Amino acid sequence: MTTVGVLLESEGRERRVALTPDGAARLRKQDVEVLVEAGAGRRAWFEDVGYADAGCVVVPRGQVYADSDVLLCLRPPGDLASARPGQVLVGLLGPLGDPALAQSLAAAGLTAISLDLLPRTLSRAQSMDALTSQANVAGYKAALLAAEAYPGFFPMLMTAAGTTRPAQVLVLGAGVAGLQAIATARRLGAQVTGYDVRDAARADLASTGAAVLELSTPRAEAEGGYARELTAGEAEAQLRGMAGAVPRFDVVITTAQVPGGRPPLLVTAAALAGMRPGSVVIDLASTAEGGNVEGSIPDTRTVTTEGVTVIGAANLASTVPGAASTAYGRNVLALLAMLMPHGEVVLDLDDEILSAVTVSHGGRVVHPRVRALLDDSKEIHS
Amino acid sequence: MTTVGVLLESEGRERRVALTPDGAARLRKQDVEVLVEAGAGRRAWFEDVGYADAGCVVVPRGQVYADSDVLLCLRPPGDLASARPGQVLVGLLGPLGDPALAQSLAAAGLTAISLDLLPRTLSRAQSMDALTSQANVAGYKAALLAAEAYPGFFPMLMTAAGTTRPAQVLVLGAGVAGLQAIATARRLGAQVTGYDVRDAARADLASTGAAVLELSTPRAEAEGGYARELTAGEAEAQLRGMAGAVPRFDVVITTAQVPGGRPPLLVTAAALAGMRPGSVVIDLASTAEGGNVEGSIPDTRTVTTEGVTVIGAANLASTVPGAASTAYGRNVLALLAMLMPHGEVVLDLDDEILSAVTVSHGGRVVHPRVRALLDDSKEIHS
């Protein structure tokens, strides 16, 4: 019988868990053994007793490593040395951003499967699309966070003493996170405007009922539905246009990503300086190396000298841990259904999806793009 | 010419200001001089320069006291000794909860006008109804705070990997705050149930589209649209019924007040213990002497051993300071229009509204109910 193990996330601020008790119960029905590390779900309010009630065995971390055929996580565990060669590890491992990790996974003999490598345009892959499910949660929370930090009302309110105008919200980037932020801000009654460099995304924007911000910058579609990186001249023009537009808004939520690259700068310090005191800017692309908003710091709330609150919101999905874990667990179950069609692991590397998401296998990094990145860095260092 | 002065609130956590630059501009149009204490609006993001642009003079606190005919505040200032006899002070002074303050106001020679004494059922008074305008803001923020703290989604979401059920929200007390909390939670897509002991309020509940929780407790209407205090037996039955109902919900928002009395206990520790881990309870009636929820602490977030987050939300209006100050300022302007019909203060104590809101005048406490409270306490202490 196959055994699936659920690890407690190593990163202390990460509140999600890779499988909920409900998800575990579905595996149990298929006669899969489920080991859960003690406390794995606690930060998401899934208590050990809930897993036990679902038919799981709650054990210490060492035993999860020792006795599991398949290990489930979100971020890569900090103690890969505990893994056994031949074990399968499923997570959001981010090997394109950290190719050295892929080497460690291979060296540990793990068959590492990373859901962020999923070919998102295949309809068969949609139920496994963890980037989408987590971006959906992040976009929802971004709108809530903005409403919470904004000193006025989002909706228009009419009272005996007068009427207040609705908040003007601008959402940059109309991917999953951006569209969900738009939907949530609109639910709250704000007047929402969206912006994206991709033609298809502008059509999505219009379909939400949001207004569309038009800047005199070119379209920039790339493969797989992502945006391509703009040329220096295009980016410069975009920044100028944005600096003119941003001060008209009370709230700006930025969600623009370029796969494998640094997030584009969209809102400069000069644009922030033009906003009214009390305005709120949420940067979902905030990283230590910079985000969409100049000066945003991950997981930190800063206030500019002009009175604009800038929130670097690096991992918002983790702050809605119940919803995010439930959605992620469903993605994992959909993957396991393909990986273990008859209850046993069968890694079919001829399958379009499985070959796309497998990072390492049999002691080698097998993912072509990750290998190319490793080869590049070898050349640089040799 | 009459001079109106705007004070910086003495309580450091209070972020509201009694008049916004827009409100001040309306007074200036009527040739009223407006003095604003430096920094008075800053915590609500109304900068001194905004007041100056509106035609106000920004001055130190001492000069506001020295040169104003009418002083505007929310909570009673901490330095009443700085006031001049004959000055008018307008605020939310709460003399029924603190009759000793009324004596201090009289001793300072102030004509003190407290908007919380407004006869709320008079339609002429509605535009001055600061309790309503601030409760409206508090109810809005309560729903946002609940959504922010709740680990799941408020709305039902359908994705490729499955559907999540909407959050079940219970709102206790269908006054202004409760109804606005219901409206906001419903905007966010939650399934909302309301409860109130008053028949009229149950009708209001039904009109919002919320479900109505029925307990086998009697109706309890009192004067002025408020609820009366329940008898011990009635309260006991209500607590039992509530303990049975509360665990069915993911989020509970409590807003029940009894005027002049302690807020009723509605959610016991036993009821909290029955809720699922991750549930959220927001107590808008939280005070140092207790609130609607057992164990709630004002301005504090606690988590029970069962994993229920309890938020004591004593002064939520202050946390949406822009909207709250704008609304309060409009209430104050409506009062001033009556108090200064031709630009000069004329205190007509024969007017139904002005007589109801005036606490002290000519060195004496003139409000009958406040005087009765003072007489009672004299008898107790003699």
Would you kindly provide a written description of the structure presented here, covering whatever features stand out?
Two copies of one chain form a homodimer. Chain A has two domains: about 5-130 and about 320-380, Rossmann fold; about 135-315, Rossmann fold (3-Layer(aba) Sandwich), CATH 3.40.50.720. The first copy, chain A, is α/β, with parallel strands linked by helices. The longest helix of chain A is centred in the middle third of the chain and has 20 residues, at about 130-150. In chain A, strand 7 and strand 8 form a beta hairpin. The first copy, chain A, has helices at about 20-30, 50-55, 60-65, 100-105, 130-150, 175-185, 200-205, 230-245, 270-275, 320-340, 350-355, 370-380; strands at about 5, 35, 55-60, 70, 90, 110-115, 155-160, 160-165, 170, 190-195, 210, 250-255, 280-285, 300-305, 310, 360, 365. Chain A contains twelve helices and 17 strands. In chain A, the strands form three sheets. An eight-stranded mixed sheet of chain A has the order 3-2-1-4-5-6-16-17, with helices on both faces. A seven-stranded mixed sheet of chain A has the order 11-10-9-12-13-15-14, covered by helices on one side. The first copy, chain A, is globular and about 65 Å long.
